[in-house]
Amino acid sequence: MSFEVQSERKEDDASSGRSDALLSADQSSNKQESHVSNDQPSDAHSSYTGFSKQTTVTVLTSRTSPGCFRSQGDIQSKRRNKPKVAPRTTPRKFNKPKSSLPPLDFGSAGLVGRDKELATLKSCSDRLMKDRKKELILVGGQSGSGKSSIIRSMENDIPVEGLFVEGKFDMNTSNEPYSGVATAFGVICQKIKEAGPETVADLRQDLRNELGDKPGMLVHLIPDIQDIMVVETSDDSTDGSIDRVDETEGGVDRLRFAFRALARVFSAFFSPLVLFLDDLQWADVSSLLVLEYLVSDSENENPLMIIGSYRTEEVNENSLLHNKIVGLREKTDKFHFHMTELMIESFSINSIETVITAVLPSLRADHIVGLAALCHKRTLGNPFFTIEFLKMLHIEGMMAFDETTKTWSWNLSEIKKETMSTANVVVMLEESLRKLPEQVQALLQCAAHLGSTFSEPTIDLVWSVYGRRLVETKTEPVSSLLPLLVADDIFEKSENQQYRWAHDKLQEAALSLSGELRDTFCLDIGKILYYGLAEEHVEQDLFTIVDLINNGNASKRPEFAAANLRAAEKARGTSAFQAASEYASEGISLLQDTDWVQNKTVTLNLYTIAAEAELTLGNVAAAERYREAVLSRSDLSTIEMLPLQVGKAKALGDVEVKPKEALEYCLSLLKNHGCRMTWVRPLALPQAVASFIRAVKKAKAKPQKFYEEMKPSDDKQLKYIGYLLSKAAYNAYMAGDDAMYLLSTVKLVDITMEYGVNEFSATAFAFLGVISSTVLQDYEAMERFVNISLGMLKKFRGMHAAESIFVGHQLGLYWVKPLEMGRVVAEKAILEGRREGDFVYTSWSMLQHVVYLPYITGRPIHKILEGCPDILAEFEETKAGAHILSTKNYYQMLLNLSDPLCENPSVHVGKIYSDTKEDHRGNPVHLADKVIAEGELVFWNEDYEVSAKRALTVGEAHAKTNPGVYLNQIESFHRAVALYAAAIKTKKGKYKRAANKIRKRMASLARYDNTTIQYYDLFLTAEHLASGKKPREARTKYEQSLEAVGKLGHLHHLGLLNERYSDFLQRQLSLEKESRYRLEQAIGYYREWGAVHKVKSLESRLKLSKS
Alpha helices, DSSP H only, in 777-880? Predict the structure, then answer.
């Protein structure tokens, strides 16, 4: 914990007055004498001399001269106003040996007995730099086994361009979200600042490219990032922000992307970047998720190593960490990272001999062997316990030092008699601490409750207010006590007045000193920090402070419900929904019956957050209980109930996947808020069509200036109505209710035009444009409405950008614009979707980027296949069911086309996808994908007449099932090619008539700017002319279509057009040589594309033509 207090504290009297303000009157009047041992000298600086009390020279720190020490004579002189001060260069230790023995230097022993472990870490480090595949190393062992020391030794081997940083989880704050991870990333930010302004500027731009100028939750988690990001409140490209109704939606996905983006940027600058996360057994759920996010980021190609240590004795099969480790083992291949598990064992007797030989050299080898055996028996080989045991022998004077030979000796029999066997180092340390002076014990107890690290201003605040209640004498300032504890190896001091415990066991021992009064410590210290720190520092470490209060609030005092609400809101804001749920639940438990009247805002907000958090965690029943506790009340307004009602709509549609029930619930809520969708449900469809036509006319009639000058709506009720309309539209689509889908979309457009922009306005106009093209074939209106949608995205933050971009392009603009723009658009949609946590449309955009567009534009099949496993893994990570099915569908299709070992490439089954495995026939997207995949395999691998017969049977099934999707372009084109080929071969009119319908539709679209549809039109015209026996005109069109597709480089259609042209030249013009040339060209393009079965078929045909 690191804070500044609200103002400078005055000495003594002022501090006394302050404590009365921070502690209640009944508490401040009682001394907590049992907190500390009563048999110690009250003077804070009475020197501790070991397990047996022994009076030594007493030293005091002067208030006027901090750091100066005085003997008893000096003190008497001071009382006679004759001070005689002799400054000391180093503070005197509390734990000083009974006799004048030289200090023990355990550093001289080095890392004993750890050669194998060090070699393993070195091997992992070398492998990281060689293949740049992420490394995850999990180091387990008992507390005190030396895990941290072994891991920290790696820092010396990190190249100068790399960085080793550490974050630690604390036993006192195991519920604090992201604590260790945030600490580690905070250190990275500090290192970047130290690198200079040019480095900061470069990384700032890299981070903005990934995260935008609104890092959001990261600022709350990692305050140091603000100095790098320079968070801005406005941007020239936008006029304002749109507040979202449900800020929790997509929160987990936003967090995943944010941490991954940070790791990518930081690991690109520091090579390698090594993150050491200590004491993972105390990590919260959210921190373990972040660890998984970082190591499973297949897009991060920079050298990143994550090392986690944990206590094996505190991890069992029911623990969070155990389950996470099991899950990570199963993901190494899928997400391309190495995972190494390393167990640190206790010292062997030989290792202890090595330590003793280095630290306590003796002339008697048998003495070393004997002491090593005794140490092993007493400590069970625990390295930390071994060191403490030897320190105790040193302090107690159980060994002697020979100045002449510089060797040690001891009486082994005496040591055996005076010591006892125990595996609990905390007990031994606690006994040692209880022999410290009273004030030191009290200070250690206060520090132990602040966590594994703390700052001097923080402990000073707690000590000045609380210390005088714990000791009988006047408290000494922490500025004089802390250096002594550092000298005694209890604390370690770092930069910026920061201190940390030298070992967790020391902190545990100090906590145990509080005994049964630990709850009182927690509550009192928590209150001191909550009320005594400056507001910004309370916010910075809010979770730790509220945890202290909750741990000590055994009497359930209701005054802290608001503090828990504050913590719950912060946890929700950082997508730590497990913590948000726990804080909200604790706050609710503190509420009184009268709080619904006297403290309504706090009460309502606690229930709302609890319901939201439980729903996000998938605990539907728990969320429903919290919602019903609110919705069943009659003393709340409709506006106050709206957040809970919206949550129920979300639960039905998104979590329970009951689209029909969710739609009906949304419609009933809309009706209650004066937004009736239809008066007569059976007439909803004609009403929807009429409303849609009116909305299109109204929107088209508005000048462009109207849309450019639109402002955000600030009506809270309208925002919730907009949210409910969006949920109604989504669930109507999923339930197949076209009328409600159309009406909901039109209502969103009407609300936007009448009352101003809301978070769904851009999406509504994108869909209005798409429906204009699919229903009215009005492509000009479609283009205008989509551009209005995109203009809103540029003007306002907070809108659903990924959805609007995807819908506006995939269902709209790609019909009238070049497909070559698609790659850049898809990348933008992916980035926006990840920033806003919209995994649904991020995933659709990834499919477009990796599969749809590359396939339509004829990229090499093997290149497309390379990206399929990665996106499939990501979709499985986010449990994106529809996207998983779609990916598997096309993945299998591409494998069938390109795998020479596939025995029946025309049949859409295989190791990735099969209908016998995937039972999702009711999903319209899945059905549409099946139509395309099955049709494409027949088209490329069978005779065209077989494909034509299928085309007649299937008809416009894909367009009807998934209207507007630009995949219809290639699906329709291939149906037409097969139909024309069958018509030319069989002379049957049914094929030609069906083909002509598609050709005419393509011709109507060819007047726009879609260059792909333009060459489709040219080629289908050539086929039409060829079927009508107009060879000269047909040849011209064939040549023009080949020229057009050649400019675009669509390999599959370069093969197809050459193949069909070859057939035309041979069949109608009898130009055998030119026909063979075109067939050879087709084979070459098909081979480059990767269609092995097609190549084999045409090679047989070429061989036959030559014979």
Answer: 779-795, 801-810, 822-836, 839-847, 853-856, 861-877
User: Would you say residue 638 has pLDDT above 80?
Assistant: yes
Give CA separation, 587 vs 247, 523, 526, 582, 789, in Å. 21, 15, 16, 9, 42
For the residues 541-566, what does the mean pLDDT come to? 88
pLDDT in tens, 202-211: 898 898 888 8
Which residues contact residue 1073 at a Cβ distance below 8 angstroms, ignoring those fewer than 6 apart?
none
Task: Answer for the pair 1007, 968: CB distance below 8 angstroms, yes or no.
Answer: no
Average pLDDT over residues 376-384: 89
Q: What's the longest Cα–Cα distance across the chain?
A: 128
Question: Which of 93-97, 413-417, 1088-1092 has the lowest average pLDDT?
Answer: 93-97
Q: How many alpha carbons lie under 13 Å from residue 672 in its C-beta half-sphere?
A: 16
Closest C-alpha among 527, 562, 557, 460 to residue 21? 527
Residues 376 and 703: their CA atoms lie apart, in Å, by: 87
Question: What is the pLDDT of the chain when averaged over all its residues?
Answer: 85
Question: Residues 258, 218: contact at Cβ < 8 Å?
Answer: yes
**Position 845, amino acid:** S
Is 859 a residue whose pLDDT tops 60?
Answer: yes
pLDDT at 3 over 60: no
CA–CA dist 275, 278 (Å, integer): 10
Alpha carbon 358 to its chain centroid, in Å, reads: 47
447 burial (CB, 10 Å; 0-12 / 13-18 / 19+) is buried
Nearest residue to 449 (alpha-carbon basis) of 378, 539, 520, 384: 520
Note the pLDDT tens digit of each residue in 707-751: 999 999 888 888 889 999 999 988 888 888 889 999 999 999 999
User: What's the predicted TM-score (pTM) here?
Assistant: 0.79
Other CB atoms closer than 10 Å to residue 873's CB: what's the count? 17
Tokens of 801: 């950008």
Give me the DSSP letters along 92-138: PPSS--SS-PPPP-GGGG-STT-HHHHHHHHHHHHHHHHH--EEEEE
User: Is 90 exceeded by the pLDDT of residue 574?
Assistant: no
Which helix or strand (DSSP H or E) is residue 311 part of?
strand 304-311
String of DSSP letters for 950-989: HHHHHTTHHHHHSTT-THHHHHHHHHHHHHHHHHHHH--H
Give residues with Cβ within 8 angstroms of 489, minimum separation 6: 95, 502
| For range 246-261, the mean pLDDT | 84
Q: What is the Cα–Cα distance from 360 to 894, expressed in whole angstroms?
A: 71
Give the CA angle between residues 356, 360, 365 to the nearest 5°.
Answer: 70
Residue 189: which pLDDT band, with cuts at 50, 70 and 90? Answer: very high
Q: Quick one: pLDDT at residue 858? A: 97
pLDDT tens digits for range 492-520? 888 778 898 888 888 888 888 887 777 78
Amino acid code (one letter) for 981 = A
Structural tokens at position 648: 């129920």
C-alpha–C-alpha distance, residues 1053 and 1061, integer Å: 12
Place of tokens 């197949």: 736
User: CB of 237 within 8 A of CB of 637?
Assistant: no
Which two tokens mark 224? Answer: 């140091």
Q: Which helix (H) or strand (E) holds 408?
A: strand 407-410
Long-range contacts of 980-985 (CB under 8 A, 24+ apart): 980/1020, 980/1023, 980/1024, 980/1026, 980/1027, 981/944, 981/945, 981/948, 981/1023, 981/1060, 981/1063, 982/944, 982/945, 982/947, 982/948, 982/949, 983/948, 983/1027, 984/1023, 984/1026, 984/1027, 984/1067, 985/944, 985/945
Distance (Å, whole) CA 969 – CA 812: 12
